[in-house]
Amino acid sequence: MSPSVLCSKKHAAHKKRKKGGVQLRCFLLDRTNRVKLYEKLADEIEAAVRRGVFAPGEKIASVRQASQQHEVSIKTVLHAYALLESRGVLETRPQSGYFVRAVPRAPAAPLARAIAVASEVDVSRLVLSTLRSIRAHDAVPFGSPYPDPGPFPWKRINQYANAIARRHSSWNLIDDLPPGNPELIRQIARRYADNGVPVDPEEIVITVGATEAINLSLQAVAKPGDTVAVESPTYYAMLHAIERLGMRAIEVPTHPVEGIDIDALAQVIARRKIAACMVMPNFQNPLGFQMPDERKRRLVELLSEHEIPVIENDVYQELYYGDARPSALKNFDTKGLVLHCASFSKSLTASYRIGWAMPGRFRAQVEKLKFLNTLTTPSVPQVAVADYLRQDGYDRHLRRVRKLYRQQARIMIAMVEHFFPTGTRTSTPQGGYVLWVELPPHVDSMKLYRAALENGITVGPGTMFSTRNAFGHFIRLNYSYPWTAQSEAALRRLGELVAELDARGAHNI
């Protein structure tokens, strides 16, 4: 029987007994640490407040409710609440009850120390830790994989969504079934047609972001144990998909301007069985290149010759810095072997997670897998995005974002060249919003990652972009966020940390 239950029973028994005209008080002591029960209850409530379970100004349970929840007497709760008032945790409001006062939250342990980095790096934990540090500690988001949502018209899209929700009190689940909302599919097909990509709307399957599109496409063309060829470095979300599905990745050297080494890929295909290839030909994350058209054609021809499907991640397709949207591998596909994946998350709104796949000859299988995996993509976000595409200035919005990113890329490159030590080199992004930085060879990017976190700065260490612990002296930086005095100071401090680690590494040789 728990101490709290014992206390309730003893309290009921002692209520009837008096000693010298004074009612006996029942405060059961915890047998392990001899703390009175009301103190223990007060400590638990205070800990919950400091962890953020109860927010400042929020009303907590009434005395009677707390008595029932914790199985203690009302008197015990009253004493606990009185103790919390004396500690400044709670305050009483007449006729209203007990409310939480503003109490400083306990400082969190640095996230960098929570990451166990041995000979192998747990990429998914590293990515999650970086994102949590940005959210929890308001760290400078150079390490974020997501664009700054500030320039996006998410308020306007929310207005469309709210209007749709008001018009339709309920949705028929049948309307949500794959392939997706017909009007959204039509709008997506129209954008491709306007950019010279012949697309059959019947081929498009709406997904929950590009991540689901990639996962479904990979499931459609490969099975557990198969080998998938990827660029090196490559975007870690693609490595996650391969790992999650029990497949193996083989990394192919990738040029920072021209893309995947097609001759090296041909040698890999000659040596072993490759089930599929996964690439980002436009504004690859993290290198930022735009693969030349002739190399795109050669890549598709090589893979078609061997009947190898290629999953094309074209999520940054709209974020080009040139005069026209670049071609996709889909432009050169004659056999239906290109599974093209994209989304609006990087160019319009990340909140609704609307993506799509154009899987070529694998379309029926992808649609079936979509149904089996997640059943549907919610209708309201689909219709809201379709309404925005049809009625608002998406192209005008994109022109503003492209101009902004192009300017901020130049600023970031100039600042890295200015603040970082000799031996640092940067990529030359042709689109997107990330910069790949090669540090002096003595700098360990994981040590830099930890040191940066302690200074309130996040970076993307190069080891996240490979399964082989490669790129140990590279980092990826996000330049989509506004350039401010804070971000400039953070980049200057980052350069100082790089210099310190470089000097220390050289001294240890």
* Rg computed from alpha carbons, rounded to a whole number of angstroms: 29 Å
The portion of residues forming beta strands comes to 5-15%
What is the CATH architecture term of the largest domain?
Answer: 3-Layer(aba) Sandwich
Q: How many separate domains?
A: 3
Record field, number of beta strands? 16
Structural class: alpha/beta
Q: Report the major sheet.
A: 8 strands, mixed
Can you tell me the CATH superfamily of the largest domain? Type I PLP-dependent aspartate aminotransferase-like (Major domain)
Largest sheet strand order: 5-12-11-10-9-6-7-8
Top CATH class of the largest domain: Alpha Beta
Helix fraction bin: 40-55%
Determine the CATH topology of the largest domain.
Answer: Aspartate Aminotransferase, domain 2
Poorly predicted parts: 1-34, 105-121
Shape category: globular
Average pLDDT works out at 86
Give the N-to-C terminal Cα separation: 64 Å
Question: What's the total helix number?
Answer: 17
Keywords: Aminotransferase, DNA-binding, Pyridoxal phosphate, Transcription, Transcription regulation, Transferase
Domain HTH gntR-type: 35-103
Enzyme class: transferase
Organism: Candidatus Burkholderia verschuerenii
Fold and architecture overview:
Pfam families: Aminotran_1_2, GntR. Its EC number is 2.6.1.1. It is an enzyme of class 2 (transferase). Residues 35-103 form the HTH gntR-type domain. The protein is α/β, with parallel strands linked by helices. It folds into three domains: 3-100, Arc Repressor Mutant, subunit A, CATH 1.10.10.10; 111-151 and 396-507, Aspartate Aminotransferase, domain 1; 171-392, Aspartate Aminotransferase, domain 2 (3-Layer(aba) Sandwich). Helix content is 44%, strand content 13%. It contains 17 helices and 16 strands. The chain has helices at residues 3-15, 37-50, 63-70, 74-87, 123-137, 154-167, 173-176, 182-194, 209-221, 236-244, 262-271, 293-305, 363-374, 379-391, 394-419, 445-454, 485-507, and strands at residues 18-19, 22-23, 90-93, 97-100, 205-208, 227-232, 248-255, 259-260, 276-279, 310-313, 338-343, 354-358, 425-426, 434-438, 460-461, 474-478. Helix 3 packs across helix 4 and helix 16 (445-454) packs across helix 17. It is globular and about 80 Å long.
